[in-house]
Design a protein that fits this description.
Elements: E1 7-12, E2 27-28, E3 31-32, H1 33-42, E4 49-53, H2 57-65, H3 85-99, E5 106-109, H4 119-130, E6 137-143, E7 153-155, E8 161-163, E9 181-191, H5 192-198, E10 206-210, H6 222-234
Parallel strand pairs: 1-4, 1-5, 6-10
Antiparallel strand pairs: 2-3, 5-9, 6-9, 7-8
Length: about 240
């Protein structure tokens, strides 16, 4: 709880990963991938309860071993390639309300594919959101570098290039260009009622929590896994460690 508001941490992890089979429990620096997100959530004292929603008994066992709650196995119809994040989160929120009698003011979504996000990011994003009374949601963002629209071009039908924003393709100084950001996926927080109404974390009341480029990596394939491990080892990240 933080400033009188309650927080439910949700880590979604279905069993059927096409890009990298078994991804959510694949080893990363000595621990299952999902463990890094569980640890980030459990490490933040503002989160009242951290749960994993999964259709896999194997993933559920791993999640419980690392301290997460797994109050149900997700229905198969919510664990397909076309299942939406909203339907998965809505199901978890409704289960807590209807089956366990628990309601939370905020949802904190921690995707297991963002293992470089840590408890400090969870703390900081919750605090940042609380400092904006008109905001109801906060999401992770990262500043673009080479992909700023000012430096992008389009190819015309005759193969000649034209600037995406400035057709004359004049070169601009970087210091004269407005910063732009991409939605990087490491953290999503929203008032529960607002999320259930809007069905998205992105709306007029959303602000951004900026993360550095190295933290924005999302693990979708083997190359991403190798890259994440290299970054962790470079930064001296220690293993989470198994619970005693």
């Amino acid at each position: 709880m933080f400033k009188g508001k309650s927080y439910l941490g949700i880590v979604p992890a279905r069993g059927g990963s096409k890009g990298l089979p078994g991804k959510n429990i694949k080893d990363l620096c000595g621990e299952p991938l999902i463990a890094w997100s569980i640890n980030a959530g459990l490490g933040c004292e503002y989160i009242d309860e951290l749960m994993v929603t999964t259709d896999s008994r194997e993933i559920a066992d791993v999640a419980e071993r690392f301290g997460a709650k797994v109050p149900f196995l997700r229905p198969k119809e919510l664990a397909t390639d076309v299942s939406t994040s909203f339907s998965v989160i809505e199901h978890a929120v409704e289960f807590y309300k209807n089956e366990l009698g628990k309601k939370f003011d905020y949802i904190v979504l921690l995707e297991p594919t963002s293992p470089l996000r840590d408890k400090r990011d969870v703390y900081n994003s919750i605090e940042q959101l609380s400092e904006h009374p008109k905001a109801s949601a906060i999401v992770g963002i990262c500043k673009t570098e080479g992909q700023n629209p000012a430096f992008l071009v389009k190819k015309k039908s005759d193969d000649f290039l034209v600037g995406y924003e400035n057709e004359d393709m004049r070169v601009l100084r970087r210091q004269d260009i407005q910063d732009v950001f991409f939605l990087e996926g490491s953290i999503y927080i929203c008032q529960t009622d607002v999320y259930l109404d809007k069905k998205t974390f992105y709306h007029g009341g959303t602000i951004g929590y900026e993360v550095p480029k190295w933290k924005s990596l999302e693990v979708d394939d083997e190359y991403d896994m190798v890259t994440a491990e290299a970054i962790m080892r470079h930064n001296g990240v220690k293993n989470i460690g198994m619970p005693k």
